């Protein structure tokens, strides 16, 4: 079984775990399994924009074998307008910076991300995991994929750091991870990455990692998806609870995008 499948299923299930709890304050809930409804009133196992945009990126790489920035942005636009890569073609969540970039896209120039410091949500970090599986991908290419929607240096640097960390885990390299206290599980890209490293580095199984991530509260779907991607790589598809895989919706969409 491919590491990409490990990663993307780990990511999507983390996303679906977090969807019902998004924006809920830490300590006001206790997630122990996959449920539905909650914040977005979605059926259990429904993934959000995090997985849809990750799958759009996967699908582009699958078609071309390399990074085609314009094609990726066209796929993001089709997701936003037509619900491509979304379950039941329903788009129920999108970050403001990503939405702004899609509105700016003219079909030609794909680099639509803002550079200002206020544009450092986690909207590019949440979709770059497939880049870890592209042979010989450069830091500049990773940076450009972030620039499609998020062009500030902080977002770019954290995207590069995440992709390189994922590659180290794929290759079985020793990794040294550190995080800052206190853990702020917000949508700010630095807080998100810090929360991911905390959940991943202080647990020893896929299930433990994603439950720790979601119970941090705040931006639960994105943080748990990103942590779940790393945990999926480390522990493998077979480590994911069978019940969660069974409940996960959109498996046909996921499988069609894997390369």
UniProtKB/TrEMBL annotation:
GO function term, MF aspect, one: hydrolase activity
Question: Which keywords describe this protein according to UniProt?
Answer: Hydrolase, Magnesium, Metal-binding
Family that this chain belongs to? Belongs to the ADP-ribosylglycohydrolase family.
Pfam families hit by this protein = ADP_ribosyl_GH
Q: Any idea what this protein is called?
A: ADP-ribosylglycohydrolase
Q: Give the record's cofactor note, including how many are bound.
A: Binds 2 magnesium ions per subunit.
Cofactors named for this entry: Mg(2+)
Binding site residues for Mg(2+): 48-50, 219, 221-222
Gene3D superfamilies per UniProt: ADP-ribosylation/Crystallin J1
Q: Please give the superkingdom of this protein's source.
A: Bacteria
């Amino acid at each position: 079984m491919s590491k990409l499948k490990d990663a993307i299923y780990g990511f999507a299930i983390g996303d679906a775990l977090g969807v019902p709890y998004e924006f809920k304050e830490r300590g006001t809930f206790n997630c122990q399994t996959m449920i539905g409804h909650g914040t977005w009133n979605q059926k259990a196992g429904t993934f959000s924009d995090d997985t849809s945009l990750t799958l759009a990126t996967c699908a582009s790489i699958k078609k071309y074998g390399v990074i085609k920035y314009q094609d990726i942005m066209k796929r993001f636009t089709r997701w936003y307008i037509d619900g491509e890569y979304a379950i039941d073609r329903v788009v129920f969540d999108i970050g403001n910076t990503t939405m702004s970039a899609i509105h700016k896209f003219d079909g030609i120039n794909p680099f639509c991300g803002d550079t200002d410091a206020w544009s450092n949500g986690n909207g590019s970090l949440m979709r770059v995991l497939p880049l870890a599986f592209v042979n010989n991908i450069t830091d500049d290419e990773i940076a450009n994929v972030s620039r499609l929607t998020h062009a500030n240096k902080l977002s770019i640097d954290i995207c590069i750091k995440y992709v390189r960390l994922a590659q180290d885990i794929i290759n079985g390299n020793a990794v040294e991870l550190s995080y800052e206290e206190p853990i702020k599980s917000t949508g700010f890209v630095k807080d998100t990455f810090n929360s991911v490293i905390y959940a991943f580095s202080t647990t020893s199984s896929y299930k433990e990692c994603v439950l720790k991530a979601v119970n941090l509260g705040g931006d639960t779907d994105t943080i748990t998806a990103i942590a779940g991607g790393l945990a999926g790589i480390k522990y493998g598809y077979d480590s994911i609870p069978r019940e969660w895989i069974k409940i996960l919706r959109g498996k046909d969409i996921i499988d069609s995008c894997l390369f």
